[in-house]
Amino acid sequence: MNFAIPTPGIRRRSITGLWLRHAVAFVRYWKFVITWVLIEPVVALVAVGFGIGKLVTEVEGAESYAEFVTPGLIMGSAMFHALFETSWNAYNRIDNDVYETALTTPITVLEVTLGDILWAITRALMTTIGVAIVAVIFGWIDGWLAIGILIPAVMMGALFGAMGFLFSAVAPHTTFLTLVFTLVATPLYFFSGAFFPISILPEWVQPIAWAMPLTPGVHIARGFALGNLDITHLWAAIYVVALTALMWPAAVYLLRRRLIK
Amino acid sequence: MGRGDVTEESNPNAAAASPRNPIIQVEGIRKLYGGIAAVDGITFSVQPGETYGLLGPNGAGKTTTMRMLSGLAPVDSGTISVAGIDVVKDSRAVREVMGVVTQHDGLDGGLTVFQNLILYGFLAGLSRKHAKNRTHEVLEFFGLRDRSKSNVYELSGGMKRRLAIARSMMISPRVIVMDEPSTGLDPQSRNRVWEELAVLKEAGVTVLLSTHYMEEATVLCDRLSILDNGKILDEGTPDQMIERHAPKEVAQLRVLPASLRIVREYLTQREITFREVGALVSVTGLNGDRPDLSGLNDVDGVRTSYRAGNLEDVFLAITGRELRD
Asked: Per-residue pLDDT tens for A26-36?
């Protein structure tokens, strides 16, 4: 590995600067982005909660299907936002030389990933908080423990924020980024226990579903939402941290290879 | 546009600089891409206050050299020092004091003109207040103040380029490296950029620029290197280079297609060296003396004019190829 830019410590200003950049750009276009942060997931929540909720009368551990599905949908939305930020948006920043410009200031690629992942976490939190408030109004989330959902939201933001770079850093063109959704987001969304308990899947599929990186997020969020935390939620958290610890350095390596050459 | 005062050797900034202490010192840098040397052992130095040019065609290694100076490309071997800082060892420290204008403007389309500058200033290390004040100053200087709230994509190509240069000025650098400052600009915008670079020079800023426009090199540079295939072929002031390699005078024949064959035969028979660039036939043949073209006076569709030798001729003489291909 060729460390073109040595990283003697991390410079906080780089991360703050990038985070502020994203926040400013977000605020400038908030009318458009808010539709995705709030309206889209709420539409899904209402449709699934009221619609499918009517058909499903029994689901393990929850009083209603809406209560069961809410933390899953929230984590799904957190995943989409974090992934999108560091795949599509980051790709555009690569393509439009926004990172290159930043790198002509005393900033390192490692700090670029940290600033962007921090913003991915912020987006994951925004959608989590927004949708959770709506769910509280509907009575599908209650109890103070549910605030704990913010913890898996941060975890999913970091994990999928790092993962998105694995695509943007190697993408030759935007069409390549379609893979983020076809290979990652969509399968995870439907097979991570968001919509139904993994236990009802065929037995041979279950380990695969458990290994998927969104699954532990959904599991932890549901633990907080339904107030039934146990040791399995700790394992899930450790699994997420371990995955993030693998993906983030890979993201730094790939992005450095892309930008410093 | 003729050669302005900026290229005179008697330039006060260049004269005041001590030749012993170059602000940019590049020694034997090399860079391989897939086994092919993009930059193949380049050495040069730039004095404080000087404007130094790397002149060469596309693919000569100019951009790679500029990227190595700003730490965007790791060097394979060789050393670079800028303002006493070892770029190879500590590129972060260099980027605190050196302005960089990359080949593509690299403006942030998600932000306004003002926000582009203030963000850059902040990332470069200015306090938020200082960055804000400096943004106002820089916008004023580059005549972009009434554009400060514009989206970047609303700007013309010339304005974008000037904004990119303005951005590099946010940290009030002593040294700026600029990769092809006026490539892709219309002549009017180009002149505007040149004017602004002349003002920077007057303010004592050292500029290293790359270009494949011989006019740009002639107008802006105190000294320059001719770069081809990753190597420096010669170095000097524009005047020295022209004196060394170019004929004093070049005859240019504007020839209608019907008469082209006659002209070719005439020149070939008299062993006069010439080259054809589009509809122009340039006769560079005789050393210092005007070639005898009197026999072409009666040929229909031939118009003859004479111009002084320029850097384009220098490049041709050294490499045997046109600067622009």
From this structure: 999 888 888 88
Token readout for B57 is 């065609």
Interface predicted TM-score (ipTM) of this complex, two decimals: 0.89
Q: Is residue A124 part of a domain?
A: yes
Per-residue pLDDT, averaged over B51-77, amounts to: 93
For B110, the closest chain A residue by CA position comes to A25
Shortest Cα distance, chain B CAs vs residue A85, angstroms? 13
Residue numbers in B near A259 (CB within 8 A): 72
pLDDT of B162 reads 92
Please indicate whether, in this complex, the C-beta atoms of B106 and A101 are within 8 angstroms of each other. yes
Q: Which residues contact B87 (CB under 8 A, 6 or more apart)?
A: B68, B69, B71, B80, B81, B94
User: Radius of gyration over alpha carbons of chain B, in Å?
Assistant: 22
pLDDT exceeds cutoff 50 at B167: yes
pLDDT band at B4 (very low <50, low <70, confident <90, very high): very low
Residue of A nearest to B33 (CA): A261
Domain count across chain A: 1
Per-residue pLDDT at B283: 82
Q: Domain of residue A103: give its range.
A: 24-259
Q: Is residue A47 part of a domain?
A: yes
pLDDT at site A94: 97
Q: Does residue A261 belong to the interface with chain B, where contact is any CB pair within 8 Å?
A: yes
Give a yes or no: residue A174 inside a domain.
yes
Residues B181/B101, Cβ–Cβ less than 8 Å: yes
Q: Can you list the domains of chain B with their CATH numbers?
A: 5-243 (3.40.50.300), 247-308 (3.30.70)
Q: Which among A113, A93, A79 has a CA at the least distance from the CA of A181?
A: A79
Q: Tell me whether residues A106 and B95 touch, CB distance under 8 A.
A: yes
Query: In Å, how far are A39, B36, B52, B275, B309 from B232, measured between CA atoms?
Result: 60, 16, 13, 24, 21
Better-predicted residue by pLDDT, B1 or B124: B124
Give per-residue burial for B92-124: e unless 16+ CB within 10 Å, then b.
Answer: bbbbebbbbbbbebbbbebbbbbbbbbbbbbbb
Q: Is B55 exposed, middle or buried (0-12, 13-18, 19+ CB in 10 A)?
A: buried
Q: Hey, are the CB atoms on B72 and A20 less than 8 Å from each other?
A: no
